[in-house]
Amino acid sequence: MVHDPARHEHAARRFDRVRRARALPHPVRQRQADERAGDPALASGLPLLSLGAHADVDLTRRDLVKLVAVAGTAAIAPRALAEAREAPERLLDMPPLGNVTLLHLTDTHATLLPVYAREPDTLLGVGEERGKPPYLTGERFLRAYGIPRGSAEAYATTYLDFPGLAARYGRLGGYAHLATLIKRIGAERPGRTLLLDGGDALQGSATALWSRGEDMLRATNQLGVEVFTAHWEFIYGLERVRELFGDRERGGRFAGEFLAQNVAEAGWGERVFKPCTVREVGGVKLGVIGQAFPYTPVAHPRRFVPDLTFGIREDQVQALVDELRDRRQVDAVVLLSHNGIAVDLKLATRVRGLDVILGGHTHDGLPQPIQVGRTLVVSSGSHGKFLSRLDLDIRGGRVTAHRYRLLPVLSGALAPDPDMARLIAEIRGPHEAKLAETLAVSDSLLYRRGNFNGTFDEVILDALLKRADAEIAFSPGFRWGITIVPGQRLTLEDVYSHTALTYAGTWTRELTGHEIVALMEDVADNLFHPDPYYRQGGDMVRVGGLTYAIDPAAPIGRRIRDVRVGGRALDPARRYRATGWASLGEADGPPVWEVVADHLRALKRVRLDPRPRVRVL
Q1: For residue 545, which of 578, 496, 514 has the smallest C-alpha distance?
Q2: What is the DSSP letter of 120?
Q3: What's the structural domain count of the chain?
């Protein structure tokens, strides 16, 4: 196996240099990928995206939005509806197997309470990825996993019939409901469970931002998480991470173990955090390796981790696997990863001896692991919607059998755990009145997830354009952020769920047409590079005021086509007034949540018109 750190460092420098030079937004979530099974976007049912032959249109979506509680059943067969009514209880049951149960959650993004969270309608991949899990959405996703349309599982895992099914099944996730489920499994499997969190737990809400992650650390401890790795946690700075989680020399306030084998001091190359641990579970020895997000210094302002290096470091993963197996005599090895699923799938082909990769970062909720050789790659979704349960039968130093279920945390099917509920009430109590401020009511379905503009992104872009009196607006292609169903009140808390960053300042400046295209090409390469190791995070940058076409399969510099501003072809030499937020460079404008909240207060009612922004070639 050949490892080329210089190649990856070169890529990191290239992305860092381009983005810093322009001081423009960067989408910080790792790309998802392939195959589209529909194009619903606005509550009117009209798409933001044109995919031509790739589209598999949901013909009932207009009615679904107009009649939220009833129309969600319009396109669903009676048999599916019958199964849907039974599904919530049935989906939480799994016959136990073997001697070890791994419980995994990831990318909860500080969603302490149950939320609506729509899955993407657009996940495009390149090359051999096309048409294979995890690069499936909608009907193709349901067919691949044998899930009935209209069922509780379909609601949790796809965008199809979302407003109607949201009315039927309610919100998902919530730490009090997660706690109930975890305790139930623990009682069923005493001494045989290990609870692991893949990170991105301490960012994504107002209370997490205001407490610098303190609220979520308390909830994580209350949940009983035993092993943790990280990504967005680093936006509070290295010293705050050390205070909360400790390092190799000292402990923090986290009750479990914080692992990150790929984080080192820039000068000496010494690891900052513990790389791995050995846990006795169910009478066997498990080796667990932690893998933090490899491109943290590139995806966020460098000032948060100025003296650290990250990276994939697959050679070090291999060395740790060998050490755990040969010297520490473990029976199985688990990688707790925040690489993103495309990187995990490639890593599984290049590192020998990994039994399980518990993945995060890209928010894929997959009903079955993807098997690469003898390695099971698990992806557990986001926003607390799912808890992965992986039962393993480990004998003679190897995994002989496994059983898996992606458990949807349907709040209506799980009573809240009283201890966690009390903690959440204590955390939120001082802020409830402020967070509950009603800014507007939405007639449209508002969401973020997907490779291109989501409808909540359009709200942010409208607010930026109006505030700056600009021609063009940019918003990062983040993957976190809850969904607002038609008829729902939009609160200040909802705005924070899409904007809660430590670098949320807005900016306005002039950019040439050439610079605008270069930015978009750079972000597109981050999303569609044929080598997963070069995909450093995020969906496509969201755009307001312009339209464009994109060919994901083309090389960098040739993906972005037919860019138009106000219906006119972009002039490479002309300077355009542009605005945005979440810059890696300087941004001296007001925080974006203030801009969006003011916009919604003035608007009072959100009703988005059809806005086809992107045409996929």
Answers
A1: 578
A2: P
A3: 1
Structure confidence by residue, pLDDT tens digits, 467-498 = 999 999 999 999 999 999 999 999 999 999 99
**From the centroid of its chain, how far is CA 287?**
26
387: left (phi over 0), alpha (psi -120 to 50) or beta: beta
- For residues 600-611, one letter each, b for 16 or more C-beta atoms within 10 angstroms of the residue's C-beta and e for the rest, the string is beebeebebeeb
Domain contains 426: no
Cα separation, 580 vs 541, in Å, equals 10
**Which residues, listed in sequence order, are joined to residue 45 by a DSSP beta bridge?**
none
Task: Pull the structure tokens for residue 304.
Answer: 């948060």
Query: Which ranges of 158-285 does DSSP label H, i.e. alpha helix?
Result: 162-169, 175-188, 206-211, 214-223, 238-245
In a domain, 450, yes or no: yes
Q: How far apart are CA 231 and CA 202, in angstroms?
A: 9
Cβ(504)–Cβ(592) below 8 Å: yes
With beta carbons less than 8 A apart as the criterion, state whether 473 and 464 touch: yes
Q: Hey, what's the torsion of the CAs at 427, 429, 431, 432, to 10 degrees?
A: 120
Query: Using one digit for the tens of pLDDT, what is the confidence trace for 303-342?
Result: 999 999 999 999 999 999 999 999 999 999 999 999 999 9
Q: Give the torsion through C-alpha atoms of 449, 454, 455, 461, to 10 deg.
A: 130
The radius of gyration of the chain's CA atoms, rounded to the nearest angstrom, is: 23
pLDDT tens per residue, range 96-155: 999 999 999 999 999 999 999 999 999 998 989 998 999 999 999 999 999 999 999 999
Residue 288 has pLDDT above 80, yes or no: yes
Residue pair 446/44 in contact (Cβ under 8 Å)? The answer is no
The answer to whether position 258 is within a domain reads no
On whether residue 530 sits in a domain, the answer given is yes
Q: Which residues contact 540 (CB under 8 A, 6 or more apart)?
A: 27, 451, 452, 477, 520, 523, 524, 527, 550, 614
Q: How far apart are CA 552 and CA 526, in angstroms?
A: 11
Q: How far is CA 250 from the centre of its chain?
A: 30
pLDDT at 554 > cutoff 60: yes
Output the pTM of the full model: 0.88
Peptide bond into 148 cis (omega under 30): no
CA dist 207 and 591 (Å) reads 16
Which amino acid, 253?
A: R
* Range of lowest pLDDT (21-30, 415-424, 429-438, 487-496): 21-30
More confident residue, 13 or 56: 13
> What is the side-by-side order of every strand in the sheet holding 438-442?
489-491, 438-442, 605-606
Residues 259-278 have pLDDT tens digits of 999 999 998 899 999 999 99
CA distance 377 to 357: 5
User: Range of 518's domain?
Assistant: 21-30+40-46+431-616
Asked if 578 contacts 514 with a C-beta cutoff of 8 angstroms, the reply is: no
Question: What CATH number does the domain containing 443 carry?
Answer: 3.90.780.10
* Burial of 325: CB neighbours in 10 Å, binned 0-12, 13-18, 19+: middle
Decide if 570 contacts 564 (C-beta within 8 A): yes
| CA gap 349, 534 in Å, rounded | 16
Cα separation, 444 vs 185, whole angstroms:
38
pLDDT at residue 584 in the model = 83
Question: What span, in angstroms and rounded, lies between the C-alpha atoms of 329 and 324?
Answer: 6
